[in-house]
Amino acid sequence: MTLIRYFILAATAAIAFSACGGPPANAPASNANASNANSAKPVAAAPTKDALMTLEKSGWEAWKNRDPKWTEQNYSDKGFNVGTTGRTEKAEMIKAYSTQKCEIKSYSLSDDQMRMAGPDVAILTFKSAQDVVCDGKKSPANVQSASIYAREGDKWKAVFYAEAAIVDPKATPAKSADKKESPKNDDKQVAPDTAQDSLVSAEKAVWEAWKDHDGKKIEDLTTKEISFINIFGTYFANKADALKDWTSPGCDVKSVSVTNALATTLSPTASILTFKGGADGTCFGQKVGPIWGTSVYVKDGETWKWTFGINIPAE
User: Fold this and answer.
1) Shortest CA distance to 46 belongs to which of 98, 6, 11, 83?
2) Where does the pLDDT of residue 194 fall: very low under 50, low under 70, confident under 90, or very high at 90 and above?
3) In the chain, what's the furthest Cα-to-Cα distance?
4) Higher pLDDT among residues 249 and 162, named by residue
5) What is the mean pLDDT of residues 199-221?
6) Please, which residues have CB within 8 angstroms of residue 252's CB and are 6 or more apart in sequence?
7) What's the pLDDT score for residue 285?
């Protein structure tokens, strides 16, 4: 399915250590310090938006040049992409380099924004303009993209990418293209996350609140800062804009469903849930079709709260 363009933000940071007790009274201080230094494991410094965009652009170049080494070396082993056919794991993405024929004439990235979902997860959003044909299928000229990076030891690695074609909500929605890797969404051989049941329950609650235009409930189910990319490629950068859209009279829905769910842990306090969503109703006069959804959750005490999502029309 999607972009193979991920890379490592190599950075080191000082680590503070605390000990249960000091070294023996007769032990030289220098030996104790050397022991602590040897046991220290470097961790990646917090990323900047510019640093992540540099990585992102390098990845797009790797995709343009059809170079799978970027994915092999720099994409998290737990990473995946989501497109119109569903979820694509890392091994499938690498395989697609030799099975998919793409002609990438040009591309440009703009309007980039970054925010953190806890200390170990960064969400990067941006617009992409492109002139691309893969396997004889032309990709949408303009898409709203999302990439997620997670800290893994002394590196930041890509763990997720998806894009939604930018279209007029009142026109027939164009489907975002699986321009890079696009195998069918067969049963995935991925171990379920321990928090999966909780995340699925939370996702269903968010969908029910959207169906009912219940802003108060959505407020309670989400974090203080949220952002969202809908099936029309519209990006809502803050909670006020997202709530206004979700509670507007544009959609008339009788029932909703969340199936094919699979959760992936990113850090002790952040997880991604991918799923197939459905709704019996209409939005802007059009019948609502199935979508492949991705939601990022962060833990607030013992409660998982929704903080970011992107929905893509399903084939």
Assistant:
1) 11
2) confident
3) 80
4) 162
5) 97
6) 281, 282, 283
7) 83
